[in-house]
Design brief:
By secondary structure, the protein is of the alpha+beta class. The chain has a six-stranded antiparallel beta barrel with strand order 1-2-5-4-3-12. It has a six-stranded antiparallel β-barrel with strand order 6-7-8-11-10-9. A hairpin with an 8-residue loop joins β1 and β2. The model has no long low-confidence stretch (mean pLDDT about 85).
Length: about 190
């Protein structure tokens, strides 16, 4: 009899746990539905291109000056891309010009995906078009692989070197911007 009572209590606790999990699942599903509705109401929009007026080394380190500003609809936080790769984010804007901070600026971070199995990691800007990424040693990567930006779904950089010792659980990757900032003449702007 006591064994049956213990089993009954254990089964009731398991049932309560399942009920609680289903309530959490339902709440999360409603939240995701609301986000999907909001996303469909505010889709990303590419709204134009701009000429690059100044680039490194003539601008502040790892920034661009472009000929589109608030009067053209540019807002702080807009994504900037060139040659189908993400290059930076608008950090300030005035009436006719904007400043773009390149993703490779020292200390700037971007969420990226890379390797097999696909891993999410953080690419940290080192300056001058280079990035550092630390990822688990179980993720297979190779020199020449592309880092994919999570936010824009565009390529961010290409792996240039990999440092991994057998005794390490992680590997350190150095990657380089795909585009040459000195040769950039036009960029595309996207609201997010």
């Amino acid at each position: 009899r006591s064994a049956l009572i213990d089993k009954l209590h254990a089964d009731e606790a398991a049932l309560q746990s399942i009920k609680y999990q289903s309530v959490l699942y339902e709440a999360q599903a409603k939240r995701l539905d609301a986000l999907r509705v909001e996303l469909s109401e505010k889709p990303e929009t590419a709204y134009g291109t701009a000429r690059v007026l100044e680039r490194p080394p003539h601008t502040h380190y790892d920034t661009l000056l472009i000929n589109a500003g608030a009067a053209d609809g540019v807002v702080v936080g807009d994504d900037v891309s060139a040659h189908n790769t993400t290059v930076g984010v608008v950090t300030s804007t005035s009436n006719g010009v904007s400043v773009v901070q390149l993703h490779s600026s020292p200390g700037a971070t971007r969420d990226i995906t890379l390797g097999t199995p696909t891993a999410i990691a953080v690419a940290t800007g080192l300056g001058g078009g280079s990035f550092s990424v630390t990822v688990s040693g179980t993720v297979h990567v190779a020199v020449g692989d592309t880092l994919q930006d999570v936010r824009t779904s565009l390529p961010l950089a290409v792996i240039g070197s990999i440092e991994h010792k057998e005794t390490d659980t992680s590997q350190t990757i150095t990657a380089y911007a795909i585009v040459n900032f000195a040769d950039m003449s036009d960029v595309s702007l996207t609201h997010r």
